[in-house]
Amino acid sequence: KEETEFLTKALTKDDAPPKEKHVRSAVVATYQENGCTVFFSVIESRLNNWTFTIPIVGYKMLYMYHRLLRDGHPRVIKQSRGRYHDMVKRMKSGYNYKDDFGYCDLVRLYCDVIMTKINFHLRHEDFPGLVREEGEQLAVLRKPDMNHLFELISEVLDYLDLQIDVMSAIHKRLDPSAKLPTSHTHCVIHPLLNLVPESFATIMTIQDIYLCLAQELDADTLSGHRKRFAVCHGSLDRILTLTGQLSYIMSIIRVMPSLPKLPEEVTSPKTVILKVKLPPKTEPPAISRAFSRNFDFHSETARDRQLASLTKQVADVSVIVDQLKAERMEDHQRLFDKTNEVQMLKNELAEAKQENSELKEQVTIAAAAADTTDQMKAANERYSRLKELYTKLRDDHVTLIRQKAQSDKQASALNDRTVDLQAEKEALAASLATAQEEQTLLQENLRSAEVHAADTQSAAQEMENEMNGKVADLQKQLAERSGEIESLTASLATSKAEEARLQESCRAAEDLAAERERLLAESRDQAAGSEAGMSAKLDEE
Prior knowledge:
By secondary structure, this protein is mainly α. Helices cover 79% and strands 0% of the residues. The longest helix has 168 residues, at 373-540.
C-alpha cells in the first residue's frame, strides 16, 4: 500500500519532476522485495493508461526505471528480461508522434537507452547497474580476451552514443538565457541525474578497454574504435561543459564530473612500419623469372619494370588482406551473435534454475513453517525495528533539511541586511562628504559676506551723509515751494471769485437770450395769426 501511494504521487500528470523522497522509496522497496515486481504491478494495474497515453507520465516512469536499474537491487536487471523490456519497446512505438512540449521525442530516445542498458547488462553480468564501481578495476580486464574486448568496446560505444543523443535533445529544449527555470524545465532536465554520471562511467570504461586493446593490437586494427572514441569524447565533453554552465542544473546534480584528456594512445597512435626487402641484383626473385629471360636486371629500365611488378603484386596482396580482414570481421560478428545467443540461453537456464531453487526453498519453508514461527516473528520484529529506524532517520533527515532551509533563509536575510546596511553606510558617507563640502562652501561664503558687509557699511555711511545733504536741500526747496503754494492759493481764491462773477453774468445773459427767444416766438405767432386772418378775409371777399 505504501509503495502504491508513493508511486502514484511520483507519476502524476503534472509538468513537474518526481520528488526525490518518492524515488528513494522506490529504490529502497526493491531491496525489501528483492526485485521490481511491485513497481511494475502498480504501473500495469493503476498507471498503465497514463504511461502509454500521457508523454510526461511515460517520461517520469522511464526516469524512475533507469534509477532502479542503476541503484536498485541487482535482480531488477534480471527481472527486466522479457515482459518489462517489451513494455518499454511498446512505449517507444506508442509515442511515435509530436506533442506540444516535446516529451514524445525524449521518450523515444530514452526508451532506446533503457532497452540497450537492459540488453547490455543481461549479456555482460560482470557489469553492475552503475556500469562500473568507483575505484575498482573492470572484471573483463582482469583476464582480458582481445576478441571479446574488441566486440565489447563497440557495444559500449553504441550505448554511449544513445546517452549523448538524449542529453543533446534535452539541451535543445532549454533556454540558456533563462535565470529562473520553470517546473517544466526541471522536469525535462531531471534524467540528467542518471545520464551524467552514467555517461562519465561509460566513457571511462571505453578508455580502459581501449588502452588494454592498444597494448596488444596495432593502430590500423583499432582505427575505427579510435575515431569513434575521439568523437564521443568530444561530444560528451561539450555537453558536460554546457551542463555545468547552467546554474539550475548544477543545483540538482551538485558535482559535475570532468573528463580527462584523451590518452596518447588515441591522439598519437603507434604506427606499424612495413619493411620491404628488395631482392639482390645478382639473383632475381622466383616470381620474376619470366622477366629475367627477356630483360636485363642490371639496366635501369628492367629494374623499374621489376619494381612496378612488385608494387602491383603488393597491391594485389593488400586487396587480398583487406578481403581476409573483412571475412575475419564477419566471422567475429557471427561468432559474437552466436555467443550472445548461447549466453542468453545460459542466463535463462540459470534464472530457471534459480527460480526452481527458490520454489524448492519455499516448499521447504512451507513444510517447516511450524518450526520457523518464532524465526518469522523475530524477523518481523526486526523488520519493524528497521522500519521504525528508517522512519526516524527519514524524519530526522526531513527536519535537518528544513532546518538547513531555514538557516539558508536566515543567512540570506542577514546577507541582504548586510548589503542594505553597507549601502546605507555608503549613502551616509556620501551625505557626510556632501555636508562637509557644503559647510566649507558656506564658511567661504560667510567670509566673503563679512568682507562685503564691511565694504557695504562704509558705502552706506557715505551714502547716508550724501542723503542728509540732499534732505536739507529738499527741505529748503520745500519751504520755497510752500510759499509759492500759498501765493498760488490766494491767486486761486481770487480766480474762483472772478469765475463765480463770470458765471453769474453768463446766467443773466442766458436768461436775456431766453426772453429774447420767447418774444421772437410770440412775434412770429402773432404775424402768423394776422396773416391767416387776412387770408380768410380775402377768401370771403
